[in-house]
Amino acid sequence: MFDMDGTLIDSQDLINEAMQRAFSLMGLPALPKAKVLSIVGLSLEKAAATLMPELSDSEVTECAALYKKCFISLRAETGGEGASPLYNRVRETLDNLSQDDFLLMGVATGKARRGLDHAYQSHNIGKYFVTHQTADNHPSKPHPSMLLTALQETGVEAAQAVMIGDTSFDMDMAKAAGYHAIGVEWGYHTSDKLGSADHMLSSMRDLPDYLNSHWGTN
Q1: Gap between the Cα atoms of 34 and 77, Å rounded
Q2: Across the chain, how many H-helices and E-strands are there?
């Protein structure tokens, strides 16, 4: 199971700009980009409440709705996920892993399904994944619902499952679901925040060999 933003695609500029625009529309101050990126992966309302803890519940809901509106506008202006590049070696690695008939791949993302579909279509990577878990139908990470549902859909046992992500939310979600947790060094949380990871990747190209050494894939 792969996270999307910060793991497969580098959408940091898009996410930051949409959030800053939402704050501006509400008369709220801009935040440092690093702070905005620290909440990537959370559901929108949880993200807004984390960034602006002084907001009331109704203001949190308003902020989440404005973020969606601003993100959609930015998608029209910039190409959205299509303008957010795949990280180095991602396509090569997905293609490599897809050659293994005994390995199934999926996505667990804080994106809505609409955003995930844009990412798939923009980069032609949807063909690699058999299960697609999004924020539409699950509690926010790090709740394990996305990963547990993926197990149910694929028939895979947790002991044979791996979550690859760039945030502490991904690692904590993996642990809660009984998955092996692999962190990546190129995402939105610094490596020291991914302390619960079982392994850290410095390059996506190293993933097939790591999986092969542990589960005999590829």
Answers
A1: 23
A2: 9, 5
Nearest to 114 by CA among 85, 86, 135, 138: 135
CB 65 within 8 Å of CB 180: no
Tens of pLDDT, residues 134-157: 999 999 999 999 999 999 999 999
Cβ atoms of 94 and 83 closer than 8 Å: no
Q: Is the dihedral of CA 135, 94, 173, 45 positive or negative?
A: negative
- pLDDT tens figures, 57-77: 999 999 999 999 999 999 999
Query: What six digits make up the tokens of 140?
Result: 């926010």
Q: Is 3.40.50.10190 the CATH number for 85-215?
A: no
Torsion sign, CA atoms 29, 35, 41, 47? negative
Q: Is the pLDDT of residue 217 over 70?
A: no
Q: Which tokens go with 31?
A: 């935040």
Class of domain 12-82: mainly alpha
**In contact, 162 and 146? CB cutoff 8 Å:** no
What is the phi/psi pair of residue 24, to 5°? -60, -45
Residue 151 sits at φ, ψ, to 5 deg, of -65, -45
- Where helices occur in the chain by DSSP H, the ranges are 12-25, 33-37, 44-51, 57-78, 90-98, 113-123, 145-154, 168-177, 207-215
Domain boundaries in the chain? 12-82, 85-215
